[in-house]
Amino acid sequence: MRGRGETCGPSVVVLRRARYADLPGLVDLMRTSQAAERDFSPELGERRFDVRHSRRCFVRDLRQPRLRWWVGCANARIVAMIGADFRRVNYRHAVTRRYLYVHSLYVVPAWRGRGIARRLVRRALRWGGRCGAQQARIEMAAGNAAAGNLYRSFGFVTRERMLAVPLKEAR
Question: Residue 73 is part of which domain span?
């Protein structure tokens, strides 16, 4: 991400809801975040990032009333993002019928340690509460200790674990 006009001075990072003009920055951050995710989960393997598909997904998401994307901007450049989906479960036996799914949190490495991720998570949780969500859920790579510490500071607790094995290695 460096080399594209990024400065890390005392700039103020402004959080705001994402808009269509942000599409190039959102797609760029999604590409970078997926590469970083492979560092935490190498079993995901190499996958070609599809810029057109990512752009189409963002365009669709920005139109949805139950989905939100927020960005952190500094020096007219997007340096952070987070997504949140308000979900309703129609299954009548579900314990939690309205919940917030928080996803795709990413802060450009040079901008970390400034409280940007905390502010983004707080904004998403507040929006979910206003929508009537009873619970917030998030998934993260097991090895991402910094993210785990951030989420636990908001009160998130481990509820489930997902295990994975490539089928060619399964016994």
Answer: 14-159
Question: Angle 28-21-121 (CA atoms, 0-180°, nearest 5)?
Answer: 65
Cβ within 8 Å of residue 171, ≥6 positions away: none
pTM for the whole structure: 0.85
Q: Which of 78, 107, 72, 82 is nearest to 6 (CA)?
A: 78
The terminus-to-terminus CA distance of the chain in angstroms comes to 41
Is residue 54 one of the residues assigned to a domain?
Answer: yes
Residue 139 CB-density burial (10 A; 0-12 exposed, 13-18 middle, 19+ buried): exposed
Structural domain includes residue 171: no
**Each residue's pLDDT tens digit, 146-165:** 999 999 999 999 988 888 77
What was the pLDDT predicted at 102? 97
Residue keyed to tokens 């190499």: 46
- The DSSP element (H or E) to which 104 belongs, if any, is strand 98-107
Crossing angle (nearest 10°) for helices 116-131 and 145-153: 50
Question: How confident is the model at residue 22, as a pLDDT?
Answer: 97
